[in-house]
């Protein structure tokens, strides 16, 4: 029996760099194309973009940037920060491999201790995860309003129970995550809406992926932080949305989950 393990680089307590994400970054660096990189990993083109958006959302610095087309054509390339992350990951990987080899030689696999170990991890289906700091905390009798400020300066308000605030140990200045399902994000082409939703986030449409019935709209909030929404194709047509347009992501505060 041999002991093997993949390691994860965490950022703000979130899984930030995984083996497959490193492979994607390497392929982007090699090919200059997200489409080709996705094929080489392999993963779907959509999954590749989702991964890039998630990493850019969690990172203090941009990892993947796009170069506009010209005589030599457009493409995608890694930032210097991303290249350094890859080097760091590879160095740790070498040290880890040596460490695990020594453990494998000396571990007693038949004691039951190692055989019963397993990694416990939480997987969430929510498409949007943003890291920010608590800048406002307004307690109520039952619920409390928590406001996070993202690195782009955008503020997201959430209504959660007082018990949740206590259990998470939330306080002003503490880092936390705003978690939002893409189906909970409405899109508007106008800011001044008469609507009860607490969050109206301004951005620029960076991508529209159309399906048979629904479309995925990606809204760049600044600092390469991408808010993703799922709306109907009819809504796209009725609003006249297209890439490059200014638009607003509208989210009820009760639809924003808070995590650490």
Automatic annotation (TrEMBL):
InterPro entries: Mo/tungstate-bd_C_term_dom, ModE, ModE-bd_N, Molybdate_resp_trans_reg, Mop_domain, Transp-assoc_OB_typ1, WH-like_DNA-bd_sf, WH_DNA-bd_sf. PROSITE patterns: MOP. Keywords: Molybdenum, Repeat, Transport. Residues 123-189, 194-260 form the Mop domain. SUPFAM superfamilies: MOP-like, Winged helix' DNA-binding domain. GO terms for molecular function: molybdenum ion binding. Pfam families: TOBE (PF03459). GO terms for biological process: molybdate ion transport; regulation of DNA-templated transcription. Belongs to the ModE family. This is Molybdenum-binding protein.
């Amino acid at each position: 029996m041999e002991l093997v393990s993949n390691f994860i680089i965490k950022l703000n307590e979130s899984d930030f760099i995984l083996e497959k994400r490193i492979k994607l970054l390497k392929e982007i660096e090699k090919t200059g194309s997200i489409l080709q990189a996705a094929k080489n990993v392999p993963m779907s083109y959509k999954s590749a973009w989702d991964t890039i958006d998630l990493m850019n959302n969690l990172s203090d610095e941009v990892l993947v940037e796009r170069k506009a087309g010209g005589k030599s054509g457009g493409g995608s390339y890694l930032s210097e920060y991303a290249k350094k992350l890859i080097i760091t990951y590879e160095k740790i990987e070498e040290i880890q491999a040596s460490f695990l080899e020594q453990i494998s030689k000396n571990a007693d696999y038949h004691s039951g201790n190692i055989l019963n170990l397993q990694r416990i991890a939480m997987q969430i289906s929510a498409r949007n995860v943003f890291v920010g700091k608590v800048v406002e905390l307004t307690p109520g009798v039952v619920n409390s309003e928590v406001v996070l400020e993202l690195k782009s300066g955008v503020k997201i308000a959430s209504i959660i129970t007082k018990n949740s605030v206590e259990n998470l140990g939330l306080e002003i200045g503490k880092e936390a995550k705003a978690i939002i399902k893409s189906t909970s994000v409405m899109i508007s082409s106008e800011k001044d809406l008469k609507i009860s939703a607490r969050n109206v986030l301004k951005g620029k449409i960076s991508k529209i992926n159309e399906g048979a019935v629904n479309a995925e709209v990606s809204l760049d909030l600044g600092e390469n932080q991408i808010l993703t929404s799922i709306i109907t194709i009819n809504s796209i047509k009725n609003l006249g949305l297209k890439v490059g347009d200014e638009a607003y992501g509208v989210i009820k505060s009760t639809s924003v989950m808070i995590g650490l």
